[in-house]
Design brief:
- The chain is an alpha+beta fold and about 300 residues long.
- It folds into 2 domains: about 130 residues, no CATH class; about 160 residues.
- It has 5 helices and 17 strands.
- Strands 1, 2, 5, 9, 14 and 17 form a 6-stranded mixed sheet that branches. Strands 3, 4, 6, 7 and 8 form a 5-stranded antiparallel sheet that branches. A 4-stranded antiparallel sheet has the order 10-11-12-13, with helices on one face.
- A hairpin with a 6-residue loop joins β15 and β16.
- The chain is globular, with a radius of gyration of 23 Å.
């Protein structure tokens, strides 16, 4: 069987929405051909469960041509399973090193709701996407991240937690009974089948330094248990961030979260403010840059491709 479609870029959101509503979902204006893209048809085979990797770990793929047309071949033997379509925009980055090829960067554009593969027909599905660049001032500021860190401190019964946003992650340091825990939180666009999950938080570079000889400490506390608790707390933090992002999108485009599928294409960390602190003695002051976490969403319709 073939899953065929055509990817369009919305060029005028007001004109498009008016045409979309007037025609019952078959707009005639306000858009253009998207152009080349990577299309994946992810399946819940073989265990009726979708994988959680950024690039679907069980999928069939094809390239959309310069006009945005694509056709993905899926063997008929997969009709008993469910599928979903994910579209990515591809950009090649030159690393400027002799003999090293360019690196392909994939930005998610569109995620459909899951559908029964048995419902697939020969009709080319029309997909419309509208990439949005979020103003830096509408991002999640460092002050909000610090509030969430305070909640993490309470939830995990820690003595102290500090969190700061750098150029590509959130750096965290926590203290408990003389021990120190350091880790990074990396917000990443989600390509999950759960369309309510917009970003996913990855805990990386965790380092746990407990007081006293390891063999004594091991009798009282397990580093594995500490790591599990931290990851559990960060997962709760992720749910809060997803809700905040959806609220901001809804404020900017009322009704968008109900009528369209939302996919985060990019996560950015711009400097949005500064903080000046007085140094001890006669050392004067020092000004620190404050970064925010800004996500650029892409709005896509339809949510469901096949009934």
């Amino acid at each position: 069987m073939k899953i065929k479609g055509k990817l369009h870029r919305i060029t005028n959101i007001q004109t498009f929405v008016a045409s979309f509503l007037q025609t019952g979902g078959n707009p005639t204006t306000g858009f253009a051909n998207f152009g080349k893209a990577k299309i994946h048809v992810a399946l819940d085979a073989p265990f009726n469960q979708f994988g959680q990797s950024f690039i679907p770990n069980f999928s069939f793929k094809a390239d959309a041509n310069a006009a945005g047309d694509f056709s993905v071949d899926v063997p008929d033997s997969f009709k008993p399973f469910r599928g979903r379509v994910i579209a990515f925009e591809s950009t090649l980055i030159n690393v400027n090193l002799p003999g090293v090829p360019s690196i392909e960067i994939l930005a998610p554009l569109y995620r459909s709701a899951t559908f029964a593969m048995s419902a697939v027909n020969g009709t080319a599905q029309k997909i419309y996407v509208f990439p949005v660049v979020t103003p830096n001032e509408q991002g999640i500021p460092a002050s909000e991240i610090k509030k969430e860190a305070a909640k993490l401190k309470t939830d995990l019964k820690l003595d102290k937690v500090t969190a700061s946003v750098d150029s590509n992650s959130i750096n965290c340091t926590a203290e408990k009974s003389g021990g120190e825990i350091k880790f990074e939180i990396h917000p990443k666009p989600s390509t999950s089948d759960d369309l309510d999950e917009l970003i996913r938080l990855s805990v990386e570079k965790m380092d746990i330094d407990l007081p006293g000889p390891d063999f004594i400490v091991g009798l009282c506390v397990s580093k594995d248990d500490i790591e599990k608790q931290v990851r559990k707390g960060v997962k709760k933090f992720a749910a809060t961030l997803n809700d905040q992002i959806k609220d901001e999108i809804e404020k900017a485009a009322p009704g968008a979260t109900a009528l369209a599928t939302i996919t985060i294409s990019k996560v950015r960390y711009p400097v949005t403010s500064t903080q000046t602190v007085k140094l001890p003695g006669n050392l004067g002051t020092h000004t620190f840059s404050q970064r925010s976490i800004v996500v650029d969403p892409t709005i896509g319709v339809p949510i469901k491709l096949y009934d």
